[in-house]
Amino acid sequence: MDPRVSETDLKIGSQILVNEAYAVIKTLGYDQNGPILKLAEAMSDGRLRFEQEMGRQSLILQRSTDLVGVELKAGDEIRIDPSHRVAIEKLGDRKASRHVLDETPKITWEQIGGQNEAIAAIRKAIEYPLLHAETFERFKFSQPKGFLLYGPPGCGKTLIGQAAAGSLAKLVSESKPEHQPDGDKRTPVTGGAFLHVKGPEILNMWLGESERMVRDLFEQARARRRDGALPFIFIDEAESILGTRRAMRSFNISNTLVPMFCSEMDGIESLHDVVIILASNRPDLIDPAVLRPGRIDRKIKVSRPNRDAAAEIMRVYLTADLPLDPALVQERGGEHVRAVALLVEDIIESIFRRTEDNRLLSIRLRNGQNKVLYRGDLVSGAILASIAQRAKEKAIDRTVQSGQPSGLQTKDFTMRRRSG
Ligand SMILES: Nc1ncnc2c1ncn2[C@@H]1O[C@H](COP(=O)(O)OP(=O)(O)OP(=O)(O)O)[C@@H](O)[C@H]1O
Ligand SMILES: [Mg+2]
Prior knowledge:
Blueprint: E1 15-18, E2 24-29, E3 36-42, E4 48-50, E5 59-63, E6 77-80, E7 86-90, H1 116-131, H2 133-138, E8 146-150, H3 157-174, E9 191-198, H4 199-202, H5 209-226, E10 229-236, H6 239-242, H7 257-267, E11 275-280, E12 298-301, H8 307-317, H9 326-331, H10 336-352, E13 359-364, E14 370-374, H11 381-402
Parallel strand pairs: 5-7, 8-11, 8-12, 9-10, 10-11
Antiparallel strand pairs: 1-2, 3-4, 3-6, 4-5, 6-7, 13-14
Helix pairs in contact: 1-3, 5-7, 8-10, 8-11
Residues 112-115, 153-159, 279, 281, 313, 316, 381-382, 385 line the site of adenosine-5'-triphosphate.
């Protein structure tokens, strides 16, 4: 061995340069690249067992010097050397956090127009058990674990989920620890944590990866609970991962996400531990096992706004303090606040008017009846929000371009029908 090479440089798994006589000249350190495998078992003698992807043999590898004595557990990701002989390093935890929006949303109930029934239902279901814990205890009432918010796109499911989390987190942090029933040994809740994931983002083409992300999600929630926060798991577009097998756009041969999710759900106790909110616009596609009593057994409908609700939504976006064009105020009696109110009325009227202009399509029902759908029948919170948004954009443009303050005008709200 070359005297410049010391014994300690010779690590298991590292590459060495030898001369023709196989005398060590230099150590080159570990390979920098190599495949990553998921650890199946850390055997008691220190060796590591790996399962490979379908159909390939499992492997038993030795640890590199740097891994000797390192605590490893099943599921850890380990990089091995390219010749599949030595496990080289443990990779840092790639948590589900990549897909998790982890802060409590600031949305309040006031920012949601209409949806009074849905909001009342969800507030009752979430807030009562916390505010009246003793009463629930006395009736030995087992609290729900979660909710499904369902309804057509753009009508506020995500918004309501966020507001629920925001308000509950606030409630929890304000309520005193006495709310905890006697004999309850859990860490008192002192705040909220909101874990927001979008179903499609969890879907991963690698076998087992989506499952791991779901497991991570629950693991994170439990960790948050131990720290004293009441975690919310909000799974948006839930049908994409919790769908029936038929519905899944999944390439996995067998869908193991649903059983996995169910067993994680069965492991949590109630709203005291973790609150799960699912949102979906295709609740019919969600696997019934998920919606079974004892799991997500509360379903709350978030429907399309009717005329009154639409006006309420519009009022969320068109508040009385927005600048209006003086001419518009004049036209409507000269009083600003009233002018805004009348403007909202006009916009809603123009959307809900059953005129030829507002006619969208005519459908033939199975029973032979014809039904004509007007714009008002298909309006949603998202559409109303965007109408307000575009009007404001136009007014801002005008202000910037003319260099003079300009207010909202009626014509900013008129929409040209898309042709074709
Ligand atoms: N009831 C409402 N009040 C105020 N704004 C609303 C309401 N409903 C929808 N919006 C507006 O529309 C946007 C989209 O709503 P949201 O994301 O909650 O819809 P969704 O029901 O989750 O739709 P999807 O099924 O497509 O996910 C919101 O960000 C908000 O600006
Ligand atoms: Mg949504």
